[in-house]
């Protein structure tokens, strides 16, 4: 029970993000994810192009 009480106490001390900060963080994650998807797709396409030209 001591563990549960300490978890509850710690949860009261947590600073939760407001809606604006949550939107900002979420858009950053989504934007970076889209960027890396595009980057790795481009790298993959270039490698395939290079390997197919070597045949």
TrEMBL record:
Keywords: Cell membrane, Membrane, Protein transport, Translocation, Transmembrane, Transmembrane helix, Transport
Membrane-traversing stretches: 29-51
InterPro entries per the UniProt record, alphabetical: SecE_bac, SecE_sf, Translocase_SecE/Sec61-g
GO biological process, one term: protein targeting
Compartments in which it is found: Cell membrane; Membrane
Biological role stated in the UniProt entry: Essential subunit of the Sec protein translocation channel SecYEG. Clamps together the 2 halves of SecY. May contact the channel plug during translocation.
Protein name in the entry: Protein translocase subunit SecE
Gene: secE
């Amino acid at each position: 029970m001591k563990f549960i009480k300490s978890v509850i106490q710690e949860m009261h001390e947590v600073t939760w993000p407001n809606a604006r900060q949550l939107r900002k963080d979420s858009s950053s994650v989504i934007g970076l994810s889209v960027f890396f998807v595009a980057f790795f797709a481009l790298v993959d396409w270039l490698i395939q192009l290079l390997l197919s030209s070597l045949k």
